Sequence to fold (689 residues):
Amino acid sequence: MAIKSSNLLTTKPSPLTAMVTLLILFILAFYTLHFPHPSLSNKTTFQNIFLSSSSNSTISTYLRTLTMHPHLAGTKPNSKTATFLLNHFSSLNLPSHTTSYKTLLSYPLHSSLTAHFSNHSSPLNLPLTEPSAPSVVHAYHAYSPSGSVFAKPVFVNYGRDIDYRALGVDVKGCIVILRKGGNLGRSAMIEKAEANGAVAVLIYNDEGDTWRNGFERGHVMKGVGDPLSPGWGSSVDGSERLSLEDNEVLKRFPKIPSMPLSAEVADTVLSSLGGSPVPLDWRDAFNSKVTHVGPGPTMLNFTYLGEMKVATIQNVFAVIKGSEEPDRHVLLGNHRDAWTYGAVDPSSGTAALLDLARRFSILLSSGWKPRRTIILCSWDAEEFGMIGSTEWVEQNLINLGSKAVAYLNVDCAVQGPGFFVGSTPQLDSLILEVIKKVKDPDSEGVSVYDTWAAAAGGNNIQRLGRVDSDFAPFVQHAGVPSVDVYYGKDFPVYHTAFDSYNWMAEYGDPFFQRHVAVTGIWGLLALRLADDSILPFDYLSYANELQLYRDILSNMLDQKISVHPLTSSIEEFASAAKEVDDELKELRLLETAGQFVDMKRRAMNDRLMLAEKGFLDGDGLEGKQWFKHLVFGPPNDPEKLDFFPGIADSITRSASTGERERLAEIQHEIWRVARAIQRATSALRGEFT
Ligand SMILES: *[C@@H]1O[C@H](CO)[C@@H](O)[C@H](O)[C@H]1NC(C)=O
Ligand SMILES: *[C@@H]1O[C@H](CO)[C@@H](O)[C@H](O)[C@H]1NC(C)=O
Ligand SMILES: *[C@@H]1O[C@H](CO)[C@@H](O)[C@H](O)[C@H]1NC(C)=O
Fold:
């Protein structure tokens, strides 16, 4: 229409053309008055085109291609997956690029485990990796030191402090055997064993009745990102790199060697133990033949030899430039590297990312011009401690802080049935709106929302204080509002050689409809965040969440500690959120009335985008300063609280200090959080005090 009218206007006006021009101008004026937002209906049209472009068969094809070979970070097959993504993006005419880093990775060279039983039968060599998976890396714990020990095994359940207390046996000089599932990460399990004097740790996963000969690989490093460039992005050449002997580097690795065990091998060893009987409270829900915890009389001869080496990793990006606010970014990320074939972890997410690119390119060719810029991100070396995403976040910290609207993460898109979502709370309402629009992949005629809300324990949005996927650097270091989406949890082939395309097609998602659902949710979230003229953020929800945390904390704490600083800062935050809500209503009215609100709207969007940054604190969490977010982050003891990590740590830390000092430390952490909430409040208000 624009072309036609300009043609008319540039030709020499005859009376007829003048009349036609007038008529068109009149129609235009009428249209603008009565339908001031053609973009509104446009937006819905594009959302509908997006939803109708779904295809389970393309996703399954991408997954098959991605999982042809194991693709461990730093190896050739994984750099081939990078090329595959680049080719895919360019075949869709999406501009793409990579960023490479040289980072410290870790690989196994040799391992062995022999059991010497007390009945003097000849020593038994135990398998330390899956049978018949020759191209898959041998099971190991990345960054475990090399070592060789000949010692008695002791079983310490999940390896938590309460487990060592319940055990009542000295584990000094012993090999500690632990099972997964007690809320501790691998590195924390090993750290506690080390503190109790163990000489090595073997960890198994007995969560399933099947696949009991699988070995769960994983890294055992503390913190995130490249250990040789802590806090700064390590470019390929010429950037500062610490030496392997540096204390900053060494303190991130355990001092005793460790290995994964299969549940089958663990059974063999554990059922041969004598010593103390298994404590009563470990026996519940414990499907093993273990009757005694040791130490011994069986002896284990365990050797692990690994190498740490600097290897090149690559992040891959596709960029869809925004038309009106190209300097505001919506980031969608998934990691690409896998321990093995990685059909679930992470290729189900990578297949979804590839399919999103396909669907976005369909939208582009139907005339879609996103308002803001969308970046599809494929991270490398997540399995080694979120290295690819962390290096990038560190490199781009200032731009992320001032221009990233949100980060949407998908790691394992599909692990099985059931929808799960986590987010920073200002995105809660958007998530609810979006999942009402996406079909439930497992039941006819209902939405993802319907099933999720009806499920026992469902209707529950998780928070992002965990450090187990690439949202961690975005939320906990950069303060970017974020979402994490997935189907299913606790799948039995996690990090084993059995995480293959066939497992997915047989058990994880036989019709690839769960993949379709995750892709739909991921894409719709991106469309809303990229296209809504006013950002779909809701800080009332954040205020409620903070209120809830305050209440839980207040019930937990000693009367001598005052939570008043929190109470009043949260009240202020809530009233700012309410004011913003009112302002937004007004702004929408003006917008609908066709008034010029560009500057106002931009200012409001910036406030909505930047408020999350208020929760960051320059000093970070004590003892782990890289973690800057004072509401969401990893506490030392995840059993205690899953929010306010600084306060949680001061509570657990101070168990060993004197009463006065103890109260003072907790009180100080409460004040720090209160100040962070005040900073978020003034960012939300957008005004100086
Ligand atoms: C010795 O004990 C181990 C472990 O309990 C068992 O697997 C093995 O069969 C025993 N050997 C003999 C000869 O009894
Ligand atoms: C333990 O295993 C290593 C490597 O297989 C071997 O060299 C060593 O002799 C064994 N030690 C004992 C006490 O059996
Ligand atoms: C796609 O979904 C349809 C309907 O559920 C199903 O019949 C078909 O087998 C699926 N395709 C793949 C590749 O799973």
User: Anything to note?
Assistant: The first helix runs from residue 2 to 10.
